């Protein structure tokens, strides 16, 4: 049986430590901002947990917490904004 949906319509399940995933980038940025993450533990409801390779900070619903890293935030926004299912095709390079 062949699916009529394109392969990128399916959820890819990765661990946060798998290189090449946005989750990996978030965990790596958490490590770079380790002191900030520890301070945040005291003021917002996040908890550290031992991931497959390192400590990961997650919220009460198990979502990874994005540290204060502007490059990472731009990367996340770009990935969500330019995804085919986002409702528009993303940035058109021909328009200046």
Low-confidence stretches: none
Distance between the termini: 44 Å
Count of helix runs: 3
- Helix/strand order, N-terminal first: HHEEH
Order of strands, widest sheet: 1-2
Write down the overall geometry. globular
Portion in beta strands: 5-15%
Structural class by helix and strand composition: alpha+beta
What value does the average pLDDT take?
78
- Overall number of strands: 2
Structure report:
- The structure is a single chain.
- It is built from three helices and two strands; from the N terminus they run ααββα.
- It has a domain of 62 residues.
- Strands 1-2 form a two-stranded antiparallel sheet.
- Helix 1 crosses helix 2.
- The model has no long low-confidence stretch (mean pLDDT 78).
- A hairpin with a 4-residue loop joins strand 1 and strand 2.
- The chain is globular.
- By secondary structure, it is of the alpha+beta class.
- Helices cover 35% and strands 10% of the residues.
